[in-house]
Amino acid sequence: MWFKDFLNMYKAGISHEFLFYFNVRDLVDNNRYMDRYIQEEFIKQRGFSIIAFYDISRGLTFYDSVMEKEFHKITLNEAVNLTHSLPSKVFPYIDAALKNAKMAVFIDHVEKIIPAVDIGSMSLEERTALIWLCEWSVNTRISAVGSTIFMLSDNLADVSREVLKSSYKIEPILVELPGENERRDYIEHLIRDKNIKTDITIEEFAKLSSGLSKKAIKDIKLRAEAEDVPISFDYIKEKKYSVLKKEYGDVLEFIYPEIGFEDIGGMERAKNYLMKNIVNPIRNGDLRRVPMGILLCGPSGTGKTLLVNALAKSSGFNCVKIDMSRILGQYVGESEKNFKKCLLGALSQQPVIVFVDEIDTAFRRGDGGDSGVSRNIFSEFLQFTGNTNNRGRVIFIAATNRPDLLDPALKRAGRFDKKIPVLLPDIKERAGIFKVMIKKYGFETDITDFTGFAARTDNYTGAEIETVVRKAYEIANEDEREGNVLTGDVLGEAIQKCRPSTQQVEFMTELAVKECDDMDLLPEKYRDQKLFNA
Ligand code: ADP
């Protein structure tokens, strides 16, 4: 928690200048919250005599008028008319105050003052501010007086990298999004003794608002009030979607799973594994047994995404998808900036399944950097996925059809160390997929046994069977031959017309089989092959 992190380092004399990042809006825009710390911790307990706030548009303001007077006394009233000015004008006076009184100054939107650009392309104003901010961190007079400087920014990557160099002593501190309990307390406070209309309980509201800051929760409440509508499940979901979309863009997709294991045809081994090792331990509270990460290997269209959805539904976890190709597609500098924020956003949804699709497109073995992401992004990713503190609350699931290309560091113990092959369905599984697919689309049919059709669709993936079923429905509708009913003839004709693309499927199947190190997860026919190969 940010305050504890700050206090430990401040008390131990490790640092007196801090860079708070991520959910800083809750800190500064939530008066009730910040006030308590300022009153109790800074003024009463630690005797700070000046608390001030600076940002480039509002200038320098003070916690109260006594403090303002004190500041002007120290600066001999020379700064009186300068409090709305640029850093180069005001910082010298802040400097004097920091060294002559116990002062805490909060510098908000610091990325607007010292942006993450090359020093060479910084304006003189920005360079001046950078020097002040860096020098303060190593100034012994400031530490002797006990003054402290807090810089705040939503995204760490937007702030000049210079401040984190080891020659300075500026400590970055992550301000997390509120957890479920904290949200519940806040929501309780928000809607207490008001005539707010709600269709859901405080508990439900708290659970649904995962990933949202207090500020965003308050916005939802205020909007509902203004629009005079009750706060309902759908209302929160809709508002949450737009907040998160704005915050994380296209890179993070929030999935509200609607399908369960029962809607997936076949895949009994994978389903079993996930039930036994994830869903059941979670239900029993035995979180140490839950794997940190899972790698789903197999050709496209075999239902890997589907499996993740069903797992989210039956475990009750939130689910977010990180699209690595989108991260790659972005302007390189931008992607680096946003990746950490995006991971923090994903983790803030705890308990959460973080699904990384097409992981091989980004993290390739021995990649020189041309087709993959930079080493920075990769090491960021390794750090997040290897954090054992999150065991049982964050499960990373990656999907790939080219496991052979993955950087081996990803597959080491404690990351994506469980590899589940997701292969082409066998005849029995295909019959199952036909059945769930026809049910999924709500088609009428007089077919009761799909075995014959399954026999005629050797080498079809689940996605290709879906194409067949859709085609069949089209045919049935076109001629009105059968009056919209999916008959055996129509389905047979559709199979004729939709051939599977065997291209590469065999190769990808082989790779997935090779990757798998747990015989129980392999279909019978591959076990022998594997033993044979070994
Ligand atoms: P992958 O992630 O492996 O590329 P998807 O999970 O996206 O494959 O599957 C694509 C579509 O194919 C799914 O949306 C689903 O409709 C269908 N599908 C694939 N496999 C199955 C299956 N075993 N059961 C039911 N539907 C399936």
Describe what this molecule looks like in 3D.
By secondary structure, the chain is of the alpha/beta class. It contains 24 helices and twelve strands. The protein has helices spanning 2-11, 24-28, 31-45, 65-74, 87-100, 110-113, 124-137, 140-145, 180-191, 202-208, 214-227, 233-248, 268-284, 304-315, 324-329, 332-347, 375-385, 408-411, 427-440, 451-455, 462-479, 488-497, 505-515, 524-533, and strands at residues 17-22, 50-55, 59-62, 103-107, 148-153, 170-175, 252-255, 293-297, 318-323, 352-357, 394-400, 418-421. The relative contact order is 0.08. Adenosine-5'-diphosphate (ADP) binds at residues 264-267, 300-306, 399, 433, 436, 462-463, 466. Adenosine-5'-diphosphate is lined by residues 264-267, 300-306, 399, 433, 436, 462-463, 466.
Question: What is the fold's blueprint, element by element?
Answer:
Elements: H1 2-11, E1 17-22, H2 24-28, H3 31-45, E2 50-55, E3 59-62, H4 65-74, H5 87-100, E4 103-107, H6 110-113, H7 124-137, H8 140-145, E5 148-153, E6 170-175, H9 180-191, H10 202-208, H11 214-227, H12 233-248, E7 252-255, H13 268-284, E8 293-297, H14 304-315, E9 318-323, H15 324-329, H16 332-347, E10 352-357, H17 375-385, E11 394-400, H18 408-411, E12 418-421, H19 427-440, H20 451-455, H21 462-479, H22 488-497, H23 505-515, H24 524-533
Parallel strand pairs: 1-5, 1-6, 2-4, 4-5, 8-11, 8-12, 9-10, 10-11
Antiparallel strand pairs: 2-3, 7-9
Bound molecules: adenosine-5'-diphosphate (ADP).
